[in-house]
Amino acid sequence: MTDTTLHAPTEPDSAPRARFWHDLPFWGLLPSWLLMGFALILPIAIIAAVSVATRGAHGGFAWDFNLAGYRQILWNEGWTGELEFTPQYLLIIARTFLLAGATTLICLAFAVPVAYFISRQPPGLKAILVYLVTLPFWVSMILRVYAWMIILGKDGALPNLLEFLGFPAGMSFMFNDGATLTAMVYTYMPLMVLPVFASIEKLDGTLIEASHDLYGNRWVTLRRVILPLTAPGIVAGAILVFVPSLGAVLEPSLIGGGKQMMMGTLIQLQFGGGRNWPFGAGIAMALMALVMLFLIFTALRAARKEAAA
Predict the structure, then answer these.
(1) What is the DSSP secondary-structure string of 2-57?
(2) What is the residue extent of each domain of the chain?
(3) Mind spelling out the 3-state secondary structure of 141-194?
(4) Which residues are CB-neighbours of 244 under 8 A, at least 6 positions away?
(5) Which of 111, 185, 221, 259 has the most crowded CB, counting CB atoms within 10 A?
């Protein structure tokens, strides 16, 4: 016998929707979303829009769609209107990535032993050493860069020391890639030390002791135990150093003298004396795209390693 009872159609449950609008985490995070939208998303959208605009006759831009800002990175328009390949901006991009990569590797080479030394100190001394690492952040970056100008300049501390040791007088270490690299390493070194220190501090000391008990020397212990287990901190520090180094402006402008441009100084020049805002915005968007590709590659590689583990 079949059941002929009629059931009233059920109305869609509106409770989840009501709970969504009355959800405390939603409203609690709303100010952060608004701040991120106005401080991050909106400026990027404006730069993206300017990058496809037309250069103004007297600077600025006009709201006419034009890809000349991106095309100028690789090609330049000749006298007769034809496009000519110009590698000068590719050389600037290559120099930027080379200096940023060298800065990251040098910071990593110094940060690992420093972080390991700090992590093995008593709690009181450890807190003091961490404070000393963060101490440069209490001083303006401009002052720190000018300090290196005083150290490396013609009458600076380093040339005077070398002259005292018998080297020729009047030496100067300014206005070259080496001086720029030195200032960048000093500027971004704390950004590498702190994440590496946070990872090494969580490392179980018994694993290091077990490595030595199995006749592993210091190099084997570093390569097979310390570095693999502190890889998340190393990756985080590398990102925190590499990404800001790509957009460095003060170091190549003041220490390097602007003779060897980087992408940051090139962007600043286009928005300043060059008066070519679409080109500057195009370079900025290209730089951001390269950084995003680097971050995506790093994230995918870390995910593959985690899945394999």
Answers:
(1) ------PPPPPP-HHHHHHHT-HHHHHHHHHHHHHIIIIIHHHHHHHHHHTSEE-B
(2) 88-308
(3) HHHHHHHHHHHHCCCCHHHHHHHHCCCCCCCCCCCCHHHHHHHHHHHHHHHHHH
(4) 188, 191
(5) 111
Residue 176 near residue 214, CB atoms below 8 Å: no
Which of 35, 36, 92 shows the shortest CA–CA distance to 247?
92
Q: Are the C-beta atoms of 112 and 198 separated by less than 8 Å? A: no
Residues in the chain: 309
Q: How close are the terminal C-alpha atoms of the chain, in Å?
A: 59
Which pTM was predicted? 0.80
| Per-residue tokens: 110 | 């110094």
Q: Which residue is associated with the tokens 């795209």?
A: 289
pLDDT digits (tens, 9 = 90+) for 100-155: 999 999 999 999 999 989 988 898 999 999 999 998 888 888 888 888 888 888 87
Architecture of domain 88-308: Orthogonal Bundle (1.10)
55/69 Cα distance (integer angstroms)? 8
Which amino acid type is present at position 35? L
